[in-house]
Amino acid sequence: QTLLQGIILLPLRAICIVFILLLAWLSASIATCCQPGRGFLPLQGWRRRMIQTTLSSLTRMAYFVMGFQVKVKGKVASLSEAPIFVAAPHSSFFDAIICALTGMPSIVSRAENLSTPVFGTILSSLQPVAVSRQDPDSRKNTVAEITRRALSRGQWPQVI
Transmembrane region positions (predicted)? Predict the structure, then answer.
């Protein structure tokens, strides 16, 4: 019986996850379409709210479809309390759960990830701090950008 359930559930879950991923891509594309100051200015107004609510909900939904249910105990720190949010050891796809639960903060990511089809658009909508491994000044530039965002008094989302 469990084999039969697996044969039915696996394709159903895969189809649902692909559908959720395409909805996330569409939402990210709409929110960043014709964005003024793309990447240099923070998302404002409806664009920022759309990313925070839609992508957060879709990410939670995707994890639920995969069989994960996450409960938060305590209170998530607000942007004013913690402009930088540290998640460790950040070694797997479970980091997306933290992003969804904290309102889709900006992340630090490899610059190469931004050019990945579908995922790159979604990642770009989070306004990441891009790290280039080919640039010798990348580490210094990354620290400077994180500091600039942390001191922006709420203009930029939290950085994780």
Answer: 7-28
The tokens for 129 are 């701090």
- Sheet strands (E) in the chain: 108-110, 129-131
Checking 69-78 for CB contacts under 8 A at 24+ apart, the result is: 70/97, 70/101, 72/101, 76/101, 76/102, 76/103
* Residues whose CB falls within 8 Å of the CB of residue 142, separated by 6 or more in sequence, listed in order: 108, 129, 131
The pLDDT tens digits of the residues spanning 24-66 come to 999 999 998 887 666 678 888 898 899 989 999 999 999 999 8
Q: Which residue has the tokens 């990210």?
A: 28
Amino acid, res. 119: F
pTM of the model: 0.83
Picking from 58, 33, 48, the residue whose alpha carbon sits closest to that of residue 121 is 33
